Amino acid sequence: MTGTAPTSPAPHNAPRRPLVAILSGAGISTDSGIPDYRGPNGLWRQDPEAEKLVTYEYYMNDPEIRRRSWRMRQDGPALRARPNAAHEAIARLERSGVPVRVITQNVDGLHQLAGVPDRKVLELHGTARTVLCTGCGARSPMSEALERVAAGDPDPACTGCGGILKSATVMFGERLDPEVLGTAVSVAQAADVFIAVGTSLQVQPAASLAGLAAEHGARLIIVNAEPTPYDELAAETIRTPIGTALPELLATLAP
């Protein structure tokens, strides 16, 4: 009796896990004590003049604006803030093995402090934890510059070239880093689920990422207290507080 050699089973390819992209705005950090900008109690509504402190032209040309900016950094809550339940929920989802990419409009670094790897966080507007010299481009920790302010230097200059120092954030009047923005666009186009959380979706080009994701087939979910211009494209809009809503939502995406 002639037999046939047994055939090997076809290789099993595990299904690709959905890519979850999260666009976070100021609203995700309010529970950490950092005020938002455009909400009902937002910084710009409370003090419209404060916008000058983060406008490049005013900052570079007016020493008094710079001195006020350094006082704001020194007294502000951003560098003392700790991650809240929403940041921690994102970090948990990333640790679970789900492919996660965070695109943030925030400059507070709380996603990384919560445990999301730096390479998975795209900071569209830069970081307040680093200082940049506008002359030579040197970077240094914000903490070192603030120590100089505390020691009596109201407008510390670059120790290397004497140039004007600013936080490594994108001020009004400056362009976003094209490489960071390009990567964010690619993530939005590739996402299976795109969650916009704590953002008014009014600031471009960041806001357009939500529409781009929806156009490329992502399930768009918007978690924000107030309506946004992209709500009609969303599969789901959630108005309940972010600290509760986001952990509950992300738990449904974990394996």
TrEMBL record:
<feature type="binding site">
    <location>
        <position position="158"/>
    </location>
    <ligand>
        <name>Zn(2+)</name>
    </ligand>
</feature>
<keyword id="KW-0479">Metal-binding</keyword>
<feature type="active site" description="Proton acceptor">
    <location>
        <position position="125"/>
    </location>
</feature>
<feature type="binding site">
    <location>
        <position position="133"/>
    </location>
    <ligand>
        <name>Zn(2+)</name>
    </ligand>
</feature>
<protein>
    <recommendedName>
        <fullName>protein acetyllysine N-acetyltransferase</fullName>
        <ecNumber>2.3.1.286</ecNumber>
    </recommendedName>
</protein>
<feature type="binding site">
    <location>
        <position position="136"/>
    </location>
    <ligand>
        <name>Zn(2+)</name>
    </ligand>
</feature>
<keyword id="KW-0378">Hydrolase</keyword>
<dbReference type="Pfam" id="PF02146">
    <property type="entry name" value="SIR2"/>
</dbReference>
<dbReference type="GO" id="GO:0016787">
    <property type="term" value="F:hydrolase activity"/>
</dbReference>
<keyword id="KW-0862">Zinc</keyword>
<dbReference type="InterPro" id="IPR003000">
    <property type="entry name" value="Sirtuin"/>
</dbReference>
<dbReference type="InterPro" id="IPR029035">
    <property type="entry name" value="DHS-like_NAD/FAD-binding_dom"/>
</dbReference>
<feature type="binding site">
    <location>
        <position position="161"/>
    </location>
    <ligand>
        <name>Zn(2+)</name>
    </ligand>
</feature>
<feature type="domain" description="Deacetylase sirtuin-type">
    <location>
        <begin position="1"/>
        <end position="255"/>
    </location>
</feature>
<dbReference type="InterPro" id="IPR026590">
    <property type="entry name" value="Ssirtuin_cat_dom"/>
</dbReference>
<keyword id="KW-0520">NAD</keyword>
<dbReference type="InterPro" id="IPR050134">
    <property type="entry name" value="NAD-dep_sirtuin_deacylases"/>
</dbReference>
<dbReference type="InterPro" id="IPR026591">
    <property type="entry name" value="Sirtuin_cat_small_dom_sf"/>
</dbReference>
<keyword id="KW-0808">Transferase</keyword>
